[in-house]
UniProtKB/TrEMBL annotation:
Family designation: Belongs to the CdaR family.
Classification of source organism: Bacteria, Bacillati, Actinomycetota, Actinomycetes, Streptosporangiales
Domain PucR C-terminal helix-turn-helix, first and last residues per copy: 350-404
Stated name of the protein: Helix-turn-helix domain-containing protein
Domain of life: Bacteria
Gene3D superfamilies, per database record: PucR C-terminal helix-turn-helix domain (1.10.10.2840)
PANTHER family noted in UniProt: CARBOHYDRATE DIACID REGULATOR, DNA-BINDING TRANSCRIPTIONAL ACTIVATOR ADER
């Protein structure tokens, strides 16, 4: 037995054979099949308690990164020092996930997601163990030490993260940030908070126009970079000030006092210097209702952006049509296949040409100008489009236009 810190039970010292098997299994677990990871994520984000996290792209992605980090942390530790107690994972992925949970108003109970994931991981680990040895005594010893190791690791990690989350909550409950977040939460929930009181706490007028944005950074984006990106969005919209609320470790909620959403060209230009940040912009609104609705539009836009990794920003009007179909994925996929046929998997330039042609009301010269392409190239592409479509483009332009717009934002098989 190996003795740990005071109060901890003695840690067992497995046999050399058990340690050998544990290391071999950990080597397999270090790079698990994609199906394992998918099942792990589904379990972690399932259930009513985790619904707020599952429905928030930033929170869900944070939990997924933490799941993978925890699995690899445990496996790597048992490759290096098989059988020893694995230290808690307080690396950037779980810490960032914990901060995001606190900043969305969730408590330490949300860390039970890791326990749900642990159950899935244990089932797959047992299969690994059964593949390593058929000797009953070896298998019993391997499963015993594995169960102790995994349970202790998850318990220690949750305990460490809970402590960090409590510290984060204490920090957030002090000062103006907590006041702003509390007031914004009440406004978004439609609570009966007076406008004068809300304006006093936000130090932001609510009677005028509002255009909301959600600024989300890639993992590891610093607060300074997020702030710089939010300021770039304000410049693109011509706003001289903004209301900003920290919604997560790498997420800001922003409201600009402008009646028109920032033009795409200006957004693209301003965000060139911020390639690790993605921005979703809502429709402009007015008054308290507009403040609320514009934010929800931005949130819907953010969810669509999560399905289009190559896009760095979008306005609600860009995704509005696709967002209407977001909850009808099976029907959407069938519609896309029936309408586009082989064009779905063809060169993206063909699809862009077809959509530009429809928007140009069938004018090939205007299509060429808008595509910065020679007219003869446009004609050749349109001929190829007709070959790939189930029906010629000129016979079915409305359905094709809708399908091409949906395809921008929906992942299909």
């Amino acid at each position: 037995m190996v003795h740990n810190a005071a109060g901890d039970p003695p840690w067992p010292r497995p046999s050399p054979r058990t340690l050998h098997l544990l290391r071999r299994g950990a080597e397999l677990a270090l790079d698990p099949p994609a199906a394992w990871i998918d099942e792990l994520h589904a379990a972690s984000l399932g259930g009513a308690r985790m619904r707020p996290a599952a429905e928030d792209p930033a929170l869900a992605e944070g939990i997924r990164r933490a799941n993978v980090a925890n699995l690899r942390h445990w496996a790597a530790a048992n490759i290096a020092r098989p059988g020893e107690r694995v230290p808690a994972n307080t690396g950037p992925e779980p810490l960032e996930a914990g901060r995001d949970l606190v900043r969305r108003g969730l408590d330490e109970g949300a860390l039970d997601a890791f326990r749900a994931g642990q159950n899935v991981a244990w089932r797959h680990w047992m299969n690994v163990c059964f593949g390593l040895t058929s000797d009953p005594d070896e298998l019993r010893a391997l499963l015993d030490v594995s169960a102790l190791s995994i349970n202790a690791f998850i318990d220690d990690t949750i305990s460490a993260l809970s402590e960090r989350m409590r510290a984060e909550r204490e920090e957030l409950t002090r000062g103006t940030h907590a006041e702003r977040r509390a007031a914004v939460t009440l406004l978004l929930e439609g609570a009966p908070i007076g406008r004068d009181r809300a304006e006093s706490r936000l130090r932001h007028p609510l009677s005028g126009p509002h255009t909301a944005a959600i600024v989300r950074g890639d993992p590891g984006t610093t607060p300074d970079h997020l702030e710089a990106a939010a300021e770039a969005v304000a410049r693109a919209g011509g706003a001289d000030h903004r209301l900003t609320v920290i919604a997560g470790a790498t997420v800001l909620w922003v409201w600009l006092p402008i009646a028109t959403a920032p033009p795409r060209e200006r957004l693209a230009a301003e965000l060139t210097a911020h390639p690790r940040v993605r921005v979703a912009v809502g429709r402009p609104g007015k008054g308290v209702d507009g403040f609320r609705r514009s934010h929800f539009d931005a949130a819907a836009t953010q969810r669509m952006l999560a399905g289009a990794p190559s896009r760095r920003f979008a306005r609600y009007e860009d995704v509005q049509l696709a967002a209407l179909f977001a909850d009808a994925a099976p029907g959407v996929e069938e519609f896309l296949h029936d309408t586009l046929g082989e064009l779905m998997t063809a060169d993206a330039a063909l699809r862009e040409t077809a959509l530009t042609y429809i928007r140009s009301l069938g004018n090939t010269t205007l299509t060429a100008e808008r595509s910065y392409t020679h007219r003869n190239t446009v004609v050749r592409r349109l001929n190829r489009v007709d070959e790939l479509l189930p029906r010629p483009l000129d016979e079915n332009p409305v359905d094709v236009a809708v399908a091409l717009e949906l395809l921008r934002w929906h992942s299909v098989s």
